[in-house]
Amino acid sequence: MIRRTIALSLPVAALAFAAAGALAQSQMPGHATTHASPKTDADMVTNAMSAAPRAVAETATIIAMNEKGEMRTLRQGTGNFTCMPDNPMSPGNDPMCLDKNGMEWAKAWMEHKEPPKGQIGLGYMLAGGSDASNDDPYATAPAAGHAWVDTGPHVMILNGMDALQGYPRSAENPRVPYVMWGSTPYAHIMMPVGEPINQTAEAPATPTKP
């Protein structure tokens, strides 16, 4: 297991920035931590591997961010995927694995650039995940009157702009496949593959009585 901080390639750095953004989102009001995150390197590797099927996770490179926001390689892999363990500040368990094309897509997203043409990316989040908006790729908190978009275990089909027809552009029912960020170059299909324990659709919040 590699324990030192490494010099990052651009694709890995992009995922690091994405994780930093998720950290900022999770510190917004109404998005409190509700789970215990892995703390040791061994636990983080196990947690990161839980994001994808075993055959994918076994050969994936595992990276993680330390308390200073620096990325470390916990395990160098031989496969096409890179996995990251749960963000300790988010409200749910949300490890993620992206293939090489997915990492390039994430790099373009974080740099506000067009994703590479003709490169379909795949991502696994088999423990689920939360997003501040189904419309704005750079939102750090839900818009007024909306809730976090909580999707249970799912697969992401990234950079497939020609394959989005017929799928809803709303996360009103995140139990079925839908398009996230549909009006942007980062539109992608969210494909649920299991039932979440707790689910919050992107819908107006119920007003509380005084």
How would you sum up this structure, described in words?
- The chain is of the alpha+beta class and 210 residues long.
- It has one domain (10-192).
- It is 20% helix and 20% strand.
- It is built from 4 helices and 10 strands.
- It has helices at residues 10-26, 41-49, 54-57, 100-110, and strands spanning 61-65, 71-75, 81-84, 96-99, 121-125, 129-131, 149-151, 154-158, 178-180, 188-192.
- Strand 1 (61-65) and strand 2 (71-75) form a beta hairpin.
- The longest helix has 17 residues, at 10-26.
- The relative contact order is 0.15.
- Residues 1-33 and 199-210 have low confidence and may be disordered.
Topology of this structure?
Blueprint: H1 10-26, H2 41-49, H3 54-57, E1 61-65, E2 71-75, E3 81-84, E4 96-99, H4 100-110, E5 121-125, E6 129-131, E7 149-151, E8 154-158, E9 178-180, E10 188-192
Parallel strand pairs: 1-3
Antiparallel strand pairs: 1-2, 3-4, 4-5, 5-8, 6-7, 8-10, 9-10
Helix pairs in contact: 1-4
Report helical residue fraction.
10-25%
Series of secondary-structure elements, N-terminal to C-terminal = HHHEEEEHEEEEEE
What is the strand tally? 10
Number of domains: 1
Structural class: alpha+beta
Show unreliable segments. 1-33, 199-210
Main traits of this protein?
about 210 residues; disordered C terminus; globular; disordered N terminus; eight-stranded mixed β-sheet; 4 helices; alpha+beta
Summarize the structure.
The protein has 210 residues and is α+β, with helices and mostly antiparallel strands. It has helices at 10-26, 41-49, 54-57, 100-110, and strands spanning 61-65, 71-75, 81-84, 96-99, 121-125, 129-131, 149-151, 154-158, 178-180, 188-192. The radius of gyration is 16 Å and the shape is globular.
